[in-house]
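Input.
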Amino acid sequence: MDDAVLLPQRNGHLGALRRCHADPVGVRAHLRQKGGKHEVVATYDAEFRAGFERQITGWATDFMRRSHQQGKPFYLYLPYTQTHIPTIPDPEYVGRTKRGNWADILTQMDDFTGQILDELHTLGLGEDTIVVWASDNGGDSTYRMPAGDPDPFGGSWDGFGGPWRGSLFTSLEGSNWTPCIIRWPGKVPANRVTNELVH
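Output.
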């Protein structure tokens, strides 16, 4: 797996985690500075996954604070991953909804998004920042077997694209029509709903 994950480096900047590989204890994450040796920074196992969304939310708010203190405008891309299997909520959110891991994850993501918005307001940037909250694809229509997800309700579900045909892994409308919320005070009217595609 060659997925990049942003991690704080020793110099205080965010850096990309370059390589991950599976081993008997999970996925080992390696960080390497140009010309340097690989350094194991984490083992991506169930425990790490459960706390990762909280960790990246903290890194994001820290990045916003540092950028603001330095008088620099910033671009923050924060892709939460927990809506993909296996859904393992942060310990604070386990069982909160009493509707299973998926509902707990949605509550968790809502709270963590709120922390980002709260930080923008604390910094005095809430009215001067464009926030785009979007999904990358439509529902996953692949039937999930209970072994694929530690959800207490069995972990099986079918995603749903509403009236549109298709889902994740297709180029049909059921994959392309996804939620998108844009908050831009003074530019995008509150409570406006549109069915236009955003490209």
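Residues 1-26 have pLDDT under 50 and may be disordered.
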